[in-house]
């Protein structure tokens, strides 16, 4: 299919796993893309650090350059695609592009979560499009629905499994009873975990995505620093077994919620931590390295978006979708909905977030133990939902699940329990989500 | 929050369950909507058949009119919202609006599935936006992702549960072992089924949605008449039990698929019928009256969209999302991506669709029965995947699951089996999907 219109010209920054796939799809689907856009796409340059490196497919070597900034500044570039990642120098390249009115398509979650405001400001200044569907949950069309489909509704809560590595590990622990270390080894072997898995297992990756999701859902600028973060390295095989007994499974969740703070003002709470959820919850059956995001909105009710959250090809699919949108906008002289941050809601600290705890205690098997323990909960105004007690010789195990209470009260309760003589040890503390 | 820009003016056609909710949300979220759009929305008229009828909420009676066409023609109307349903007179109102350059937001799946082409042509003629997110799967943002997020990818298959009534009935049969009649009675009592459930249980509603989904997914005009349709009234408690034994559940699915036809040409097959799917499939756990659509694309891989497919408030949420998009486009002088039907793929008849069958036969318990039955399958070039045989007295039951084969071959096989002396009766024939 041919088109009489001049080509929309693309500059690609980065040519790793995702970039290579973007180039491949641009070639393979050139005809379809031209038909959908109404003009052909032309890749005019690819900025990489090592132009001589072997890359999949046959990419014209003349396209490679090491001068990313020079490529961005070229007059004949319409759309800049950034799949390098990291804060700097990507930030300066994208500011340069946006300020000059070039459309930007980026998969850079770290940059958006740390300093999205600067990019949005540059986009406003240059009257340019900033697309970043690939930054959260890979191929799942998620940001566009949040940005556009639900903008007549009010989102109240977003609960997501947004990190494939940790979901693979937790799914495997749930299926086999393995401990964290063993499951991590398996994930590394199969290529689901990187050599240094810190960003994944400590929740940094999920926290960046949580910040982006919360910003879109609540029309409020949220950065990674605003997100309470707790990794999942502390989740044990015993925790997983205990969750099973309760009809639950453990997932690393990102949770973004709007609601009144302690003084009654509307505010936003954003957190990443492992939590038990009931097996009947739609998120519970999200296995392997899949991602899913569960959205609750006042009018729409419950929605869920599910798919592959990572990988070169799925991420490239999201990048391509954004390229087409940006190219169509350029041809029609229009722009995507720009940043919507009008709500300016304050961030609520984790201490004020209402959560539920599952606490497992090894206690001395004496009369009055339960009364003493229950007294500690009452002192902090935490209401107990269920208690299971099982004795063995002189010890007993108490498994307590609370009703919802401010996280600070729950944390203080656990601190107090720790100091009790009759409490031999606190075997586990896990948050509980999803209406168990 | 105020705005200096003049209001975007809305005309509402219809004020039933969905319309009333649209009006309520427009009032309740006026401030948010103004902020998101950059200008206020103003409802200037509501066309209804009986203006005096009692409606929820306090709607200004001066807004009501019985003259829908007159309202659509008013010079001061920017966006026409149609929630009346049915083919005529809705068609003429929307053609009038679009041709005159007014944006249209509609939830009218029947009209879009029967004659979407006429509406798209009118939209092109008037350079007007035609939005219809609410027409398929209620509140689930599904059309926008298909239309926009995946337009850099190639969708290969869409498998959906798009009718809440039948999903409620089948979920209930699966959970309780009830028969169709009993489960339908329950659905009617709880308000999930209408007094005349034909459109739902016979698959007409799902077929209309399938046509709309297939059109978007494959960039090809598909109408309801192109969709092979088989209702779910024939699904028995025994079928459900048999599915359970196989680790499956039965769902009424709409399936739209692209692929080569018998002569090797790329084509589209669209069908609605009950089918067994494995319990491990993401669609299997979609319970109650929820909807979900499972999308497979070449680059994105597997995606699923889940949520409430019906109900006044969820549908109104989708309508509001479209109103905001249409209003923003008007303010910025832009348009949404228009219809994309460049692929013009031919429709493949059901006989050529490759499916799998689960067939349960009551046969005489004689030597050689299996050989005779297997011979019939071989004659029609249908390969058998599994056979289970269970005897009781002089009768035996054969449960046969086939490999994939053209539907025509499978149908001919069943016809031939019916004429065999040794086959006492064919207890059930069900298609099998989702890679069992």
UniProtKB/TrEMBL annotation, chains A, B:
Positions annotated to bind NADPH: 109
One Pfam family this sequence matches: Homoserine_dh
Stored CDD domains: ACT_HSDH-Hom
Pathway(s) this gene product operates in, as recorded in its UniProt entry: Amino-acid biosynthesis; L-threonine biosynthesis; L-threonine from L-aspartate: step 3/5; Amino-acid biosynthesis; L-methionine biosynthesis via de novo pathway; L-homoserine from L-aspartate: step 3/3
Homology family: Belongs to the homoserine dehydrogenase family.
Protein name in UniProt: Homoserine dehydrogenase
BP term (GO), one: methionine biosynthetic process
GO molecular function, one term: metal ion binding
Active site residues per record: 209
PROSITE patterns: ACT, HOMOSER_DHGENASE
């Amino acid at each position: 299919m041919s088109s009489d219109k001049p080509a929309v010209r693309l500059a690609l920054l980065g040519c790793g796993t995702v970039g290579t796939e973007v180039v491949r799809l641009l070639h393979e689907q050139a005809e379809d893309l031209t038909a959908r856009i109404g003009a052909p796409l032309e890749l005019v340059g690819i900025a990489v650090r090592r132009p001589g490196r072997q890359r999949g497919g046959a990419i014209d070597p003349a396209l490679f350059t090491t001068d990313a900034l020079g490529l961005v500044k070229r007059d004949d570039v319409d759309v800049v695609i950034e799949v390098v990642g990291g804060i700097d120098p990507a930030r300066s390249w994208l500011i340069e592009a946006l300020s000059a009115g070039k459309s930007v398509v980026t998969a850079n979650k770290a940059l958006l979560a740390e300093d999205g405001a600067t990019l949005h400001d540059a986009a406003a200044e240059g009257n340019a499009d900033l697309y970043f569907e690939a930054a959260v949950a890979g191929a799942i069309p998620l940001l566009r629905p949040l940005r556009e489909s639900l903008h007549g509704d009010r989102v109240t809560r977003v609960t997501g499994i947004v990190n494939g590595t940790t979901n693979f590990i937790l799914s495997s622990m749930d299926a086999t009873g393995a401990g964290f270390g063993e499951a991590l080894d398996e994930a590394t072997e199969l290529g689901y975990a990187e050599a240094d898995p810190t960003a994944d297992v400590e929740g940094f990756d999920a926290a960046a995505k949580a910040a982006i999701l919360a910003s879109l859902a609540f029309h409020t600028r949220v950065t990674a620093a605003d997100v309470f973060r707790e990794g999942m390295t502390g989740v044990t095989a015993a925790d997983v077994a205990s969750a099973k007994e309760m009809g639950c499974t453990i997932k690393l969740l990102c949770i973004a919620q709007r609601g009144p703070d302690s003084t009654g003002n509307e505010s936003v709470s954003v957190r990443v931590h492992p939590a038990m959820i009931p097996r009947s919850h739609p998120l519970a059956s999200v296995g392997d390295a899949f991602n899913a995001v569960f959205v609750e909105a006042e009018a729409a009710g419950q929605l869920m978006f599910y798919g592959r959250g990572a990988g070169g090809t799925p991420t490239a699919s999201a990048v391509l979708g954004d390229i087409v949108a940006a190219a169509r906008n350029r041809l029609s002289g229009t722009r995507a909905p720009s940043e919507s941050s009008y709500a300016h809601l304050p961030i609520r600290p984790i201490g004020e977030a209402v959560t539920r705890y599952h606490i497992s205690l090894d206690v001395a098997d004496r009369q009055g133990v339960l009364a003493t323990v229950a007294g500690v909960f009452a002192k902090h105004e935490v209401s107990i939902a269920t208690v299971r007690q099982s004795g063995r010789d002189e010890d007993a195990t108490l498994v307590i699940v609370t009703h919802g209470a401010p996280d600070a009260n729950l944390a203080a309760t656990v601190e107090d329990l720790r100091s009790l003589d009759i409490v031999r040890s606190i075997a586990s503390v896990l948050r509980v989500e999803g209406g168990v």
